[in-house]
Task: structure prediction
Amino acid sequence: MSLQLSELSDAESQDQEYLWTLNFGPQHPATHTTLRLMLKLDGETIVGAVPDIGYLHSGFEKLGEDLDFNQYVTIVDRMNYISPVANEIAWIHAVEKLVGVTITPRCKYVRTIFAELMRIHDHLLCVGAAALDLGAFTPFLYAFKQREKIYDICEFASGQRFHSSYMRVGGVMYDVDDKWIARVRAFVAGFPAAQAEITRLLTRNRIFMSRLRGVGVLSREDAINYSCSGPIARASGVVRDLRKDEPYLAYPDFDFKVICSNGGDCYSRYMMRMQEMLESNKIIEQALENLPSGPINVDAEGRAIMPGKQEVYQSIEGLIRHFETIIPNRGFLAPVEEIYAAQETANGELGYYIVGHGTIKAYRARTRPPSYIHFAVFPHLIKGHTLSDVVAVLGSLNIIAAELDR
Amino acid sequence: MSTIERLTQRFAGEGYSSSRFRDNTRFDIPSQSLVDVLTFLKSDCGFDLLVDITAVDLLEYPDARNRFRVVYALANTVTAERIYVRTHLDEPELTLASVVPMWLGADWMEREVFDMFGIRFAGHPNLKRILMPEEFTAFPLRKDYPLRGRGERHNFPVITRAES
Result:
């Protein structure tokens, strides 16, 4: 991880002695987590930036080879901890595709509601924190008030506010009940007003606009060339949303728009996220209205899911099935095959490349982390801007270090 | 004509094969022709987006004939089609051609594969460790590297308050 100055690109700029180097992070309040940047400056203008990552590397992918598919849910939770359940859904989706489990309609809807809640969750933090870094404190609090409500919804469903670990192969931990639905409904009803509050504070705010407009411009060609996805690619005019392109879960049933922009600067990315939250809200509303009844988990006969407590404690078959699901290599076994499956999460395309080798564990559990790929664009985006723009660009990229380093 | 048909027509012979699992279409190629195949896919078939580069250590994999598998996941941003190009490597020849000249996004992906598996990419502008510390010598995602490490944590230099 050590860096040499010679790496700071621009061969011609190297002998210019008036350039100075600034170490930004890893413990800088505006980097939020442990990001480190080596900046080479000409006065206040940035001529080169080298991100130095790995401070939070904790070997998640190695752990994925040691834990079984359901246990690893607790680890993927901790990757993008701003929208934990979305990671779970993406991971479980990949596992189910590998093993060949088809989930029930009710489960599809519940997962869709969670995935969209997590999109709002993520975007709220991103917008709020970006505003905070630029000196606007109030929108951050407004955003967090709404995030609290989503935390409560997660807690109500799973018993855990932060790292819910709610998803299981073949279903979810517990079915949701009417009280949970009422809670989500209350959130959905109140959210547009809360979004409008943040909009009123930021969208036409003169300081906010002048800090963001024209900063960190990413062209459409560059967005594709740098493998960008999600809001960052869409803000640059790449019309690509996996929810529409490769419909999964219950997305084909809903009416929603894919938000795109041609601007490519930080302001477009901010606007993208604000608008996308409203679309997510619409999806949740539709999903709640049409939530199918019936079982939420696949049949326990298929060994993909644990039988209910009632069955385990009151029948010998249920007890045996419970045993078989949890003891190694007696539950559902992954075929000797490999699969890549991706979902559109708040930050972009979150994919898992899983290799199975006939056991209950993954042989290789590769994560395609959007933060990692987006952070690689940062030096390109910041070049030529001033030091104070670093926080604006970082805030618009929404880099989550836990996912970046895994 | 589908992409896989075009590919099999253009690249035939020993080492080339295609397979399908669920909705994933894979094309296996010999490692020397990597750049040719990816260039063909990018310029002729419209696969403009490099989604991911990753590797698998096949040391303990059932019926594996090679040590490493490197996977290039590509996507077409217009038709939303995906394809996975796989190639295999054996020690001591752990070198592939870098695709950074084709996709700038490959920079960090290739560095991660190098960091975790020790596969080198010829022509990469800055091939060095990215997640692990520079002085680290092993490649952690190889199967012969133990889960708990080789004493790195135990031997980690700690500065006490008295020494500082």
